[in-house]
Amino acid sequence: MTSGGFGSGGICGSGDGRKSGDSVVLHSWHSRERVLNSGGFESTQRVLASEPLVESSESGARWLGIAYWQAVERVTRGGVRARWTNDGGRLTLLGGASLLSFGAPELAFSGEAVSCRYAIQGGLLALRAGGSVTLAQRRADDEVELSVFVEEYLPRLAARFGAPRWTGTLYAKGQSPLHAAISRRYFELLASRASV
User: How many folded domains does the chain comprise?
Assistant: First the structure.
């Protein structure tokens, strides 16, 4: 688990009716991952923002998803791309192999929270279909919490119960840190585009 500041000074973004020079402040980065009794993984990255970064609407929920997939492409420098149809999407490696596939976005919003959830349907990085990725913004006292929550994901690269610990090295040293880096970039992207 890691926690702490968010970049130098934690200031990112501007816009949406704010005066020039006003900024959204991101702080209190937190990341946690654990293995569930089911064998699935649960991963949470979150950060606090000084104000909401998306509106609480269908459009705001959809933007959470769009920004996340843009962050994936940016962190991987285009090596992993998101491809979408009305039925769902997939992450492809250099336009070819399907790393992960997802169901259509499930959008939700209220006065307190807005979210976009994708069911994980398979792909080379998934042992089998199951689990989900939820991108959310919710009120947290006088601030707003942004989060990426992965639940019941069964990564193919992770160590299996009873197997030697080294068998999960590819997940621990590659896929897991990459996911945290994508979440950081996603939060920064939301803050920088709060005016869009």
Answer: 1
